[in-house]
Amino acid sequence: SIADRPTLRLAPDADGIGEAARLLGAGRLVAIPTETVYGLAADASEPSAVAAIYAAKERPRFNPLIAHLPDEAAARHEGIFDETAAALAKAFWPGPLTLVVPAAPGGSVCDLARAGLPSVALRVPGHALAREILARVGRPIAAPSANRSGRVSPTSVAHVLADLDGRIAAVLDGGTCSVGIESTVVACLGGPPRLLRPGGITRAELRRVLGIDPAVGSGDDSRPIGPGLLASHYAPRAAVRLDVERIAPGEAVLLFGSFRPAGLDEAGVVETLSERGDATEAASRLFEALRRLDASGAGTIAVVAIPADGLGEAINDRLNRAAAPR
Ligand code: TXA
Ligand code: MG
Q1: Nearest CA among 100, 93, 103 for reference residue 200
Q2: Where's the YrdC-like domain (predicted)?
Q3: Is the CB of 63 under 6 A from ligand 1?
Q4: Concatenated DSSP letters of 183-236
Q5: Which CATH architecture has domain 8-228?
Q6: Candidate of 182, 234, 311 to mutate for ligand 1, largest count of ligand atoms within 8 Å of Cβ
Q7: Burial of residue 185, with CB atoms counted within 10 A of its CB: 0-12 exposed, 13-18 middle, 19 or more buried
Q8: CA 65 / ligand 1 centre spacing (Å)
Q9: Ligand 2 center to residue 111 CA distance, Å?
Q10: How far apart are CA 154 and CA 177, in angstroms?
Q11: Could you report the average pLDDT of every consecutive run of 10 residues in the chain (326 residues)?
């Protein structure tokens, strides 16, 4: 059920970590920092705790959640790893990679967290606070991004509270998320691995381990296996225009690198993702910049072209969803 008390703000010290772990163990909702974005955490083995996540986020129940584990050994208790999954886990865990694998018969991630699918999404995050909490709770922790469904993902406590204050028991303050964009989701379900969502691990990094470029999507457009991966998402209130070369008067503008679109001097408000054109820096600032531009009240956010290499692929993926018809 949705908490009707104000959300506790926990400091990243022994007391705060202890309280976060205690609340999670008791089936409550706690937003926790990870290296990608803040996660809305709950006990993934407890259906009522998982139901509370869907309710607080207003997330459709057909969109499954990622289960977070403290290490690969714990993850292997929940899923069946083929050779490819094992190689990816070895290369990128702990870190911003999520593996979708067949759920293990003895696993404890509940049916609701998996949205009834025979597969399970597993991630071992790299953030020290997240790992400490996971180790203490000793159960898989379901954690979607800690925003209202369809909205911009949170990279700070202020973002979490803007969407969820009063709806969750607590938020653990871990400052600003370093990667700033969600994990890369790869499905290893027999056959070639598939990239379901570009994210913090780049395509080039995956290729280095796989030896091949991963196929994109579910391989069956009529039945997407990443239900949350379609259409409008990451949406600010304002409309979003991409690859903009001319700014309309009063528009909010998102810049990257040294390109200056025509009409920029008539813009309402301007944010720059990375002056030096660095996609890693840009990813870490993307969601904060979108939230700030939206807060200006502008009707449109105009975004200049951003190269697709490195984390640019994930940035473009999120911006395309933000610009998708609603
Ligand atoms: O970086 C992240 O991954 C963050 C942090 C908190 O770990 N979490 C996150 O969760 O982004 P969420 O729920 O916002 O995104 C999880 C994505 C969704 O698009 C969901 O559809 C997909 O993973 N997913 C989860 N389980 C799946 C499954 N069994 N098969 C296919 N896709 C799955
Ligand atoms: Mg999300």
Answers
A1: 93
A2: 14-201
A3: yes
A4: PEEEE-SSSS-EEEE--SS-HHHHHHHHSSPPEES-S-TTS-SSGGGSSS-S--
A5: Alpha-Beta Complex (3.90)
A6: 182
A7: buried
A8: 5
A9: 19
A10: 9
A11: 77 98 98 98 98 96 97 98 98 98 97 98 98 98 96 97 97 98 97 96 98 79 47 82 98 98 97 98 98 96 97 97 90
ipTM for the assembly: 0.99
Exposed, middle or buried, 231 (CB in 10 Å: 0-12/13-18/19+)? exposed
Domains in the chain: boundaries: 8-228, 239-323
- The token duo for 30 is 């706690």
Whether 285 contacts 152, CB under 8 Å: no
Whole-model pTM?
0.95
Q: Write b or e for each residue in 110-137: b if 16 or more Cβ atoms lie within 10 A of its Cβ, otherwise e.
A: bebbbbebebbbbbbbbbebbbbbbeeb
Angle between helices 279-295 and 312-323 (to 10 degrees): 20
Fold of 239-323: Rossmann fold (3.40.50)
Side chain identity at residue 187, one-letter code: A
Helix H or strand E encompassing 68: strand 66-68
Residue 121: left if φ>0, alpha if ψ -120 to 50, beta else—which one? beta
Q: Which atom of ligand 1 is nearest to the CA of 123?
A: 7
